[in-house]
Design brief:
Number of helices of chain A: 10
Order of helices and strands of chain A: HEEEHEEEHHHEHEHEEHHEEEEEHEEEEE
Radius of gyration of chain B: 25 Å
Shape of chain A: elongated
Structural class of chain B: mainly alpha
Helix content of chain A: 10-25%
Order of helices and strands of chain B: HHEEHHHHHHHHHHHHH
Number of strands of chain B: 2
Oligomer: heterodimer
Number of strands of chain A: 20
Strand order of the largest sheet of chain B: 1-2
Largest sheet of chain B: 2 strands, antiparallel
Strand content of chain B: under 5%
Mean pLDDT of chain B: 90
Radius of gyration of chain A: 25 Å
Distance between the termini of chain B: 39 Å
Structural class of chain A: alpha+beta
Largest sheet of chain A: 6 strands, mixed
Mean pLDDT of chain A: 89
Chain lengths: 390, 304
């Protein structure tokens, strides 16, 4: 096994005169890029910096422009506005074969008339490597994606997982500065997808190549990426690390797109030190922590993730408990959704709304499990609340 | 009974129906032609000898069989006229098919890359000449190509030539006619293969560093080979036996085998020699067909 691939030998990419960016400089800088199809603005003034070695995910629902943005990075679409700087050089109008960027296609786009070996060697031959170097590099790639013994097969005679590996090896063979992955795991079943996620992360860490992945699957993005850009209607709605995206979403739309969330609309009532008091329509008066970004003192929403909501038969009694349970809402269990590892309870609040509470099934035999129509108290701390501008 | 089992289900019948069709409309006539090709010409009705008469009894049939000979085939080989006609037919067919491929491929490629709604329009434009009779369209070409025809008028108006060019009764006119007539048969199979090709394959080739001409030669063209094969066969085989276009547009100094056949049948009334010529033509045409089938089989096996 070659764990550390030499990254110094001459390829077309290096020969094209691209120098790696100076430390601190982003590898890729997207500046005000826009693309319009007819009257539809698929990508709308997107600006984004991506550092060398990052595993970046573009996340969004279908039609949000994430694939169009990726295709502009690969060179299959030319942006109508803006610049795309790779290592300081504007490549916005460069043709695909002139870019030190490779892409792994959603349906892999393997050449059906070429064997696994020739598929992987395709880009190396175009780069003008000598025959011996090509053979060495193909062998490295085959070992890297564990496809030994299948070199002579045609893509039609491979399984879905094997095809995915060939596509990955083919895209990595040229040692691109930037690897683009368009829904790379969408065609795999759930178990294979999870193991492949881990392998992709391991591979990215080992090679140090910058990965940009496009996905509509927020769990996939959360698992693999070091940073996530959420796109909505052609715009970047938020760029953040997975944890921040989940715990501090910038808008109600993001909070609802990434994971499950309880949202209550209300009005600002008063500020008490580092606490805000917000009167909601469906969950009574809630006390929240002061949000990091200042919010206007009018209409606000309060978002609480289901796993932050605790359930009790009665309100907690201890002093510490009382402090934590500043927000405690009476209700009745309306619905139970058992998911194995966790159970999601739907609580009908006396104040009118419903609230989801997700409880970890930490014990195999849970004699205290709640049942439908049982009276409960749903409680959470001010810090568990995210205040969003409505 | 095996025959009962064969006809037990409609599906079984559907499976043997093409073979029945071939037996009835290809093998049986072929047997007639083969028999005539082994007979001798005669001034009689029908114009050959011997004639099989099943009512005349077994001995008469045996005599008739003994009278068959391969003299006509010997004549075909020994007489230059026939050899030249075969060579010319093959030359014309190869040249015309190459021209058709060169002209048809870019058209099919362009069609396949049009927006979906325009592809249907382009398809209709390719097929629309079939609405007019083939013969009328060839006569129209005579009009266009004659001394004061449209082509010469345009060439004179553009000052490309100083006096009218002789087009009619030349090989150029024949090639124009053949390419014009057979173009749809080349375009349609090519278009069918190119249209169903995944666009991501060409993108992937470009992404991996191939400039556009390499994308074409390394990915698009190899993947369109089944369409190329079908188009080439659909054009090559009928062009070898083509009669009308060379007869109306080409000169009379060099004949194609189709014209030679016509002469033997209708002018010389020599049915046996004409039949022998037809049999040889069939054998000649089987060669590219068998080659094509071998190639396809090998491609299938390679995938394994």
């Amino acid at each position: 096994m070659t764990d550390e691939l030499p990254r110094t030998d001459v390829t077309a990419n290096a020969a094209a005169g691209d120098t790696p960016p100076a430390a601190g400089q982003p590898l890729l800088r997207i500046e005000g890029v826009a693309k319009t199809f007819g009257t539809f603005r698929a990508v709308d003034s997107v600006s984004l910096d991506i550092k060398a070695g990052e595993f970046f995910a573009l996340l969004g629902p279908s039609g949000c422009g994430k694939t169009t943005l990726l295709r502009m990075l690969a060179g299959f679409e030319a942006p109508d506005e803006g610049r795309i700087l790779l290592g300081g050089k504007d490549i916005a109008q460069a043709l695909p074969h002139q870019r030190p960027v490779n892409m792994m296609f959603q349906n892999y786009a393997l050449f059906p008339h070429l064997s696994v070996r020739d598929n992987i060697a395709f880009g190396l031959k175009r780069a003008g490597l000598v025959r011996a170097d090509i053979a060495t590099r193909v062998a490295e790639m085959v070992a890297l994606v564990k496809l030994e013994g299948l070199e002579k097969r045609k893509p039609d005679h491979l399984s879905g997982g094997q095809r995915q590996r060939v596509a990955l090896a083919r895209a990595l063979a040229r040692r691109p500065q930037l690897l683009l992955l368009d829904e790379p795991l969408a065609a795999l079943d759930k178990k294979l997808r999870e193991s492949t996620q881990a392998e992709l992360m391991e591979l990215q860490r080992r090679l140090g190549t910058t990965f940009i992945i496009v996905t509509h699957d927020q769990e996939e993005a959360m698992t693999m990426a070091s940073r996530i850009g959420v796109m909505k209607s052609g715009k970047l709605a938020q760029v953040a690390a997975p944890r921040e995206l989940y715990e501090a979403p910038r808008s109600r739309w993001i909070a609802e797109f990434v994971g499950d969330v309880n949202v209550f609309d209300g009005e600002f009532k008063l500020r008490d030190g580092h606490r805000l008091v917000i009167a909601t329509r469906d969950a009574g008066t809630l006390v929240t922590a002061e949000p990091r970004e200042p919010v206007g003192e009018t209409k606000l929403s309060v978002a609480i993730r289901p796993e932050k909501v605790k359930l009790s038969r009665r309100g907690p009694v201890s002093e510490a408990g009382r402090e934590m349970a500043i927000n405690s809402l009476d209700g009745v269990i309306a619905d139970i959704c058992y998911l194995g590892g966790t159970t999601t309870y739907k609580v009908k609040l006396d104040a009118g709304g419903t609230m989801q509470a997700s409880v970890v099934n930490s014990a195999r035999l849970d004699v205290d499990a709640y049942s439908v129509n049982q009276n409960v108290v749903a409680w959470f701390t001010p810090d568990d609340c995210v205040v969003l501008q409505s | 009974m095996s025959s009962r089992r064969i006809f037990a289900r409609p599906a079984r019948f559907a499976a043997i129906a093409p073979y029945l069709w071939m037996m009835l409309f290809f093998l049986v006539p072929f047997a007639f032609v083969l028999k005539i090709s082994l007979s001798q010409t005669a001034i009689a009705q029908p114009p050959y000898d011997p004639v099989f008469d099943l009512t005349a009894g077994w001995d008469a049939l045996k005599t008739a069989l003994a009278a068959l000979s391969i003299d006509n085939f010997r004549l075909l080989i020994s007489d230059d006229i026939y050899v030249f006609a075969y060579v010319r037919s093959l030359t014309v067919a190869v040249t015309a098919t190459a021209l058709l491929l060169l002209i048809g491929y870019p058209i099919a490629y362009g069609m396949a890359r049009l927006p979906k709604s325009w592809q249907a329009v382009a398809m209709v434009l390719v097929i629309v000449p079939f609405w007019t009779s083939f013969l009328i369209r060839i006569y129209a070409w005579i009009n266009i190509l004659q001394h004061d025809g449209l082509l010469n008028q345009i060439l004179l108006a553009l000052h490309l030539v100083s006096q009218p060019v002789v087009w009619l009764s030349t090989d150029s006119a024949m090639y124009i006619g053949i390419v014009y007539s057979y173009l749809p048969f080349m375009i349609l199979p090519l278009y069918a293969t190119l249209a169903k090709m995944e666009p991501a394959l060409e993108e992937a080739a470009g992404d991996l560093g191939a400039p556009p001409w390499q994308v074409f030669w390394l990915v698009t063209f190899p993947l369109s080979l089944p369409g190329v094969g079908a188009g080439v066969l659909l054009c090559f085989i009928p062009i070898v036996g083509e009669f009308v276009i060379p007869d109306l547009l080409a000169g009379s100094n060099a004949l194609m085998i189709g014209q030679t056949l016509w002469l033997e049948f209708f002018t010389n009334k020599d049915w046996p020699v004409a039949s022998a010529a037809a049999i040889v033509l069939l054998v000649v045409l089987l060669v590219p067909l068998l080659l094509y089938e071998r190639l396809q089989k090998r491609q299938l096996e390679q995938g394994r």
